[in-house]
Each structure stands twice: as structure tokens, then as C-alpha cells.
Amino acid sequence: MNKLPELIFNESKEGKIGYSFSETEFPDDIISLDDQYRRDGQNLEDFPQLSEVEIVRHYTNLSHLNHSVDSGFYPLGSCTMKYNPKINEAIAGWEEFSAHPYAPLKLVQGNLEIMNTLEKWLKDVTGMAGFTLTPAAGAHGEFTGIKIIRAHLAAKGNPRKIILIPDSAHGTNPASAHFSGYEVKEIPSNENGILDVASLEAHLNEDVAALMMTNPNTLGVFERNIVEISQALHKNGSLLYMDGANMNAFMGIVKPGDLGVDVLHLNLHKTFSTPHGGGGPGSGPVGVTEELLPHLPVPVISKQGDLYHAAYFNKGLGRVKNFYGNFLIMVRALVYLMSIGKENLRKVAEDAVLNANYIRKNLENDLDLPYKFKSLHEVVFSDKGLNVKTLDIAKRLLDFGIHPFTVYFPLIVHGAMMIEPTETESKETLDIFIRTMKTILKEAAEDPAKLQNAPYSTPVRRLDEVLAARQLALKWEKKQE
Ligand SMILES: *Cc1c(COP(=O)(O)O)cnc(C)c1O
After folding, report:
1. What CATH number has the domain bearing residue 236?
2. Does this model's pTM top 0.85?
3. Binning pLDDT at 50, 70 and 90, where does residue 398 land?
4. Per-residue pLDDT tens digits for 158-177
5. Do 352 and 314 belong together in one domain?
6. Smallest Cα–Cα separation from 312: which of 25, 105, 155?
7. CA contacts within 13 A on the Cβ side of 365
């Protein structure tokens, strides 16, 4: 066993915050590195020796191989690939924000205020009673949210066994529910692509802990029975979880808290314009109703008198993430919200919906549209009637400098093409996309082989995508003589 110091925060009866160090024991294998991973002492003669300019060129050229929102249209459905404003980056780069996570709270009052202010904005946008900002991704938020539901039901005597999930939900939902210790039951959506109350009620019984609903769902359709659905759930002692990653479709218009939602997560790296994936870490805050506040994970940040403080005691889950979560992502999201302004959030959502419907209208005579309800932030076509596959169209789009839409998801649409333009694209860009799609569909009719062999202009052609995902080659290997 190794002993390492750990900082413990505590609060006195009078509300004073203090901290102390304690020695915590860790097993040896947590901190000792296996010899095969050590570089020191090894002969690194063959390690590439490069000059600065060679390295700069290498990475600059690599970066040019990437398609990004900064380099072109990126209509990847469900992912809300909106532009990430540069002012977010500029302000997140202020050195005043970089603080050691163990810094005494008195020295980081500004950072705590930022977290507290962001929480207020999110409460205002969603109508929820409180948020934890700590989860590091949407799926992490789902996991946290379902754990909160479990803690709440357990405190009432029975955590129950089942989470119901409509077939139009996002794919991470069943995984998160399962990971949080629940059995997942899928319920079908109706011919309009939404859940009806009768179908939900047929699945309700005393084992049902919650319904996990993506709204607007992955067909881009608003769940219009949501108020009745929430009432039916509550009557059964069950809760309503809303996957709010698609909040871009209605922020500033509808508040999930007003619809009877008990728990919801947001994706700061979608709706609130912070970078995705390779562009930086994510953030998936979870909002809850008043009743569930005691079960939020720690730390819980609040203001008492003139001072912000972070409380580490709660009936809840303990921590779900080290320290406070991805703080600089929160700074970016708050900059976005403040620069857009409360009164303009509605306009963001309206423009996102307008752009999706512009694409839908202009392509609905060229492609099959399986669900005819009004689209919100995204539109989903199928491959019905085409003599090429969805993948062939997606690959051909690359030759035109456009990132493909999401393919083959949601699963309930055959050969799905899920297109989400977001509000940050101009009419000119949408027109180029629409024209390109029409050109590609014409090529498909006249010369399907042309699409089947695409792409032609990319550094690699068609990959074995399964192999590429499972056997990533990311590290330099010494060449065999
Ligand atoms: C993106 C997304 C998620 C998952 O978010 P991650 O940050 O990728 O984990 C969940 N639900 C919906 C509807 C999404 O679009």
C-alpha cells in the first residue's frame, strides 16, 4: 500500500468551510507503472529525430486532413455540429481562470461564481430546480441522471427494476440505463414517430422506475403527448427522464420543467456551442426537480452570504467526476449564453428548425420521407427506392467537401439519413448542400458504380470501418529490421 495525501473539505455547524489533509491508502498497482510502458533507460536510438519545421509540417498537414465545422458544412444528425464561436475560446483562455482544483475556495471565488451563474442560466432555460455541472458528456449525464432516480426511489423504499425507452430514443439511453443497474424495455413509437399514452400505459407496472425519452426524438419529431405521459408516469410512482441533447430545437420556447420532466441532461457541446470530441472534453449537466435535489452528486456549489462554496455532503451519489467537471467548457458555454442573450435563445431554436425544414422541403421530392410530422431540428430520410445504399451517398458527399449526415440511425428507419444543419449555416450553404444532394442522386440513377466506389478525393478511400474502430494504430512502433 502507498500513502497519498488527500484534501478533505468540511463545513462547521456555523457554515464555515475548512479543509484538511488526510493520508489515504492506495494499493501499489494503482500508481506503479508496468515496466513495459516505461521509456526511461530504454535505448531510443531508432526514435524519429525531427527538426521543428518537420514536426510543424507533419501536424499542420495532419490537421488539414480533418473535416471540421471551421472547414465546411457538417450536418451530422443528432450531434448539433453548430459553429463554436472564437470568443468562447478567447475567454476560456484567460489565465485568471486556470486554478489548481485543490485551491482554497476563497481564492477561486470567481470560478465558483461562473459555475453558479451557468447553473442559473440552465435552470432558467429548462425550468429545472437545480443542476449538477460535473458529468463530462451526454451519456455520462444520462448515467448520473438514472443513478439519481435510483437513489430517490431507493430512499422511498424500492429502487424498482425497469426503465422504459421508446424505439426512437438515442442509442446511449439503453446503455446508460443498463449500466445504472436497470433492465431496459423498449416501447414502439406510433406511425407518426411519437409515443402515445395508451402504448406507454400498457407497459406501466410497479416495477417501472422511469421512462427515458429523447425529445425531440431521433426522428426530429416533438413528443407532443409529453404532458399526459408525465402524468401517467407520476400516477404510477415512476419518473420521467428527458434526454435533452436536442434542446437546440426548442430552447427559449418550451421549458422541460413545465412539461413534467423530473430529470434531464443537456449537452453543452451541442446546444451551447462548446467543441465536440477531438475539439475538447464534453459536458453533460443534469437538471432535476426540487424533490430530487438532495440526490445530486457532489460538489454542490451555492452562495452563502458573500461567499460561494462547494459542499461535499449530500444524500446523493458522491462524485461522478473528479473535481468540478470540465470547468473551462462551462466558461465557454456561459460566454455563449451571455453573448447570445436570453431574449435571442428562441431565435436560435427557430432558425435551427427553419434550416432543417428548408432542407426537408427541398429534398422531399427526391428522397423518401418516412415520418411526415413536422420536423424540428433535424430531418430523417430513408433509402427506399434508391439503387445505391445510404453509405454510398454519404461517401460521395466527401468528394464535394461536405461531411456526411448521420447514417443508419435511428434504427427504425431503413437506411436512415439523418440531417441536422443547425442555425449557424447560411441559406447559401444549405443551397449548396441541396444542389449537391440532387447531383449525387442523379449520379446514382445514371451510374451507381460511381457512388459505390466513392470517395475519390480523400487521403484514404473506403475503410474497413469495423476494423479501423477496433484496432486503432495510434502509437509509433519500432521498425522490424
Ligand atoms: C449526442 C447525444 C447523446 C450522447 O451525448 P455524448 O456527449 O455523445 O455522450 C445522447 N442523446 C442524444 C439525443 C444525443 O444527440
Report:
1. 3.40.640.10
2. yes
3. very high
4. 999 999 999 988 989 999 99
5. no
6. 105
7. 3
Nearest-CA residue for atom 7 of ligand 1: 138
What values do phi and psi take at 145, rounded to 5?
Answer: -60, -40
Q: Same domain for 119 and 198?
A: yes
CA-nearest residue, atom 6 of ligand 1: 138
| Ligand 1: centre distance to CA 172 (Å) | 7
Please tell me the number of Cα atoms within 13 Å of 69 on its side-chain side: 25
Q: Residue 459: its pLDDT value, please?
A: 86
125 lies in a domain?
A: yes
Give the residue from 305, 340, 375 where a domain finishes: 340
End residue of a domain, out of 295, 319, 340: 340
Q: What's the confidence (pLDDT) of residue 289?
A: 98
Looking at the structure of the chain, the number of domains it has is 2
In ligand 1, the atom with minimum distance to the C-alpha of 139 is 9
pLDDT digits (tens, 9 = 90+) for 83-114: 999 999 999 999 989 888 888 888 899 999 99
User: Is residue 217 a contact partner of residue 171, using CB atoms and an 8 Å limit?
Assistant: no
Specify whether 183 is located in the same domain as 259. yes
Provide DSSP, 403-436. ---EES-STTSTT-EEE---TTS-HHHHHHHHHH
Q: Are residues 273 and 304 in the same domain?
A: yes
Q: What is the CA(246)–ligand 1 centre distance, in A?
A: 8
Residue 147: pLDDT band with limits 50, 70, 90: very high
Which ligand 1 atom is the nearest neighbour of the CA of 269? 7
